[in-house]
Every structure is written in structure tokens, then in C-alpha cells.
């Protein structure tokens, strides 16, 4: 069972990102503050759940959360400031969208930068420990997947509908064959042998 709160504060926000290891598309983060009485037995780290379960959980999270925010940081910014900074920026921007100011922030992973003067803690595998981080992981993943499905229509040969921009064999083969798109992260190692890629 995932725990509801890490701190003693009522307004504790969980935040997480999706798409950090992708070759294309944005890194997407979400921030969620859940009410004190929130319970859900299915909610877990989005990576441990099927797409079907994630899609069912998203409206449950959105309807029950006291407040939530979702933010994309796109490939040009990722290339400019690097993926770690882009991930943290996405989290900050999603927290900025909250209609209530959190009193405490719990972050999935081990890297974060202070947001305003709000105390925070980074928690390794936090999305498998705390409901608010798990809820944020569901929103980040489903919103990002929606975006990747949309740009798939523009460039179907990369099959982003299936791989969501992750470095699958199929995705790398398509880069080899068709080159890169405006959605690819140019600062990433897009092919194992970068020399073959003519940008």
C-alpha cells in the first residue's frame, strides 16, 4: 500500500516527470496535492501499470485532487538547458499551476532545485511509495502519451504512438532511414554511432 503523506503538512504536493530518456518529444511533469482522506488501491508508479489502468486513473486523480498541474518542456529547451534541468523546470512549472501553494513538496528521484522557499524532499522510487507522487506520475505519463500520439499523426514512420519517443530498435531504425524531425532532441545520442547521422 502506498502512503498518503510523507510530512506533517496538510498541503503536501507530489511531483514526478515522464519522458526523460526519450529521443523525441517533451519531458512532461505533473504536481498533485491530494486530500487527507484520499484512498485508492490501484494507484501506483505509472511504469507498473498498464496503459488501460493509467487512462482509468487519470480522471480519478483529476477529480479527487485538491489541485494539480501538468507542464511540458519541449525538445529545443531540453537541448538548450539539458535534460536534468528541463525535468526540474517542468516540475517547477507544474507546481506553479497549482491553485493552492504547497507547504511541502515530495519529489520522485534524487535531484531537485528549491522552489520558492517551500521545504522539499527527494525520494528515490517515490512513485512507488507515496500516492501523490504516483498520481503525478500518472498525469505526467498520460499527458505526454497524448502529445506523442498527436505528433505521431505528423510523422507516422517513427511509430511514436507505440514507442512514445523512447529509443526502441524500431525508433532508431526509422531515424537511420528518415533522419530526424523537429521533435527530436538533437543533444541526445540518437543513434549508437552518431557519425552516421547527418543533421
From TrEMBL:
Cofactor(s) demanded: Mn(2+); Mg(2+)
This enzyme's EC code(s): 3.1.26.4
Catalytic activity of the protein: Endonucleolytic cleavage to 5'-phosphomonoester
This protein's UniProt keywords: Cytoplasm, Endonuclease, Hydrolase, Manganese, Metal-binding, Nuclease
Ranges in a coiled coil: none
Enzyme class of the recorded protein, top EC level: hydrolase
Cofactor binding, per record: Manganese or magnesium. Binds 1 divalent metal ion per monomer in the absence of substrate. May bind a second metal ion after substrate binding.
Biological process, per Gene Ontology: DNA replication, removal of RNA primer; mismatch repair
Entries under Gene3D superfamilies matching the protein: Ribonuclease H-like superfamily/Ribonuclease H
Family: Belongs to the RNase HII family.
Protein name (record): Ribonuclease HII
Organism (species): Aestuariibaculum sediminum
Gene name, Swiss-Prot/TrEMBL: rnhB
Amino acid at each position: 500500500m502506498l502512503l498518503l503523506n510523507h510530512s506533517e503538512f496538510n498541503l503536501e504536493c507530489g511531483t514526478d516527470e515522464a519522458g526523460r530518456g526519450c529521443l523525441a518529444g517533451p519531458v512532461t511533469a505533473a504536481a498533485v496535492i491530494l486530500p487527507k482522506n484520499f484512498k485508492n488501491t490501484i494507484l501506483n508508479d505509472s511504469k507498473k501499470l498498464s496503459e488501460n489502468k493509467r487512462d482509468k486513473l487519470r480522471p480519478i486523480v483529476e477529480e479527487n485532487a485538491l489541485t494539480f498541474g501538468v507542464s511540458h518542456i519541449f525538445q529545443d529547451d531540453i537541448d538548450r538547458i539539458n535534460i536534468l534541468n528541463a525535468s526540474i523546470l517542468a516540475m517547477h512549472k507544474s507546481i506553479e499551476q497549482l491553485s493552492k501553494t504547497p507547504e511541502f513538496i515530495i519529489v520522485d528521484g534524487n535531484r531537485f532545485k528549491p522552489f520558492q522557499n517551500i521545504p522539499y524532499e527527494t525520494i528515490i522510487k517515490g512513485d512507488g511509495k507515496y500516492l501523490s507522487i504516483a498520481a503525478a506520475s500518472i498525469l505526467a505519463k498520460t499527458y505526454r502519451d497524448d502529445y506523442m500520439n498527436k505528433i505521431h499523426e505528423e510523422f507516422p514512420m517513427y511509430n511514436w504512438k507505440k514507442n512514445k519517443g523512447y529509443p526502441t530498435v524500431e525508433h532508431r531504425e526509422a531515424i537511420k532511414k528518415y533522419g530526424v524531425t523537429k521533435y527530436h532532441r538533437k543533444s541526445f545520442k540518437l543513434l549508437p554511432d552518431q557519425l552516421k547521422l547527418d543533421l
